[in-house]
User: Fold this.
Amino acid sequence: MAESSSTNPEADGRSEAEGLGRRVDEFVTKTDQLEKNMQKVVNFYQTNRTLKNLPHNELICSKKMQDLMCHFGIILRHIMKHEWAGPFLKPVNVKGLGLDDYYQVIKKPMDLGTIQKRMEAQEYKNVSDICADVRLVFDNAMKYNEIGTDVHKMAQTLSNEFEKKWRHLSPKVAEEEARQEEEERGIIGFAKLAKDTNNELNELNLQLEELRQEVGIRCRKMNTEEKRRLGTGLSKLNADDLNKVLEIIAKENPNFHFSNEEVDLDMDAQSEITLWRLYFFVKEALEKQAKDCGSIKSGDFLKRKREKFDVVSNIKKQNKKLSI
Assistant:
């Protein structure tokens, strides 16, 4: 009579193993998808190698954008050389001119000299931002100084001159900035994909560790009859399969060494998960051996005999034996 309360312990063990196997398959599928995502990120950064050295969140200033900034610099210098540009080349001397209410009216002061310094320091990432600051210089002047005053007239004249020059450059700037924005969205998208993938991989590692622990807990204790069948099966394995058995044991027990002439295998000293792995491996290996033997035709008898002789020779050469 069977010792286990189950009517078919082997079937129960197989069913439980298959259930855990399906969970492992799910992890493998998820891992494959994460690997594809990571490869997308790798391919993107390999294609755009200049991105690797950029500080976090720093935007790219393309070669074309740099050329457009150079053109804008020519426009700016043209405006700064105008005979009426003097009041706008430096920050307004609020204290010296006694403009007590200036900062109440003007919330964001700006001047052409400051813009030029920022351009030289490469603080601007696109031309539109420079254009906005130039416009701010003249808008501030016309806002603080009433219509009809000299400063208002000078600001209006220079503003008109600037807008006339800007109209020729504006379409090229708009086109390049649109392209750059699209590229930046791609960078942000791939950065997010990389971060999300890394987080999912960390989560997957935790889930795999939980599954490994669960497998160890859920593996039921192998009964005496099953251990007897396992021992009998081990004695029937060929040399290659015996080596695989030793590898399975060593994988679960790093302290296990099998370099000696004879290997002693204590069934009771093995974990349940190791025993079940051995059990199903031996069962499949013997089934394969039986199938291979059944497929040998009578005309191949001598060939098979030679193969058996080779196996025996290999075992002797290895000088290794598994004792159970």
About this structure: The chain has a mean pLDDT of 78.
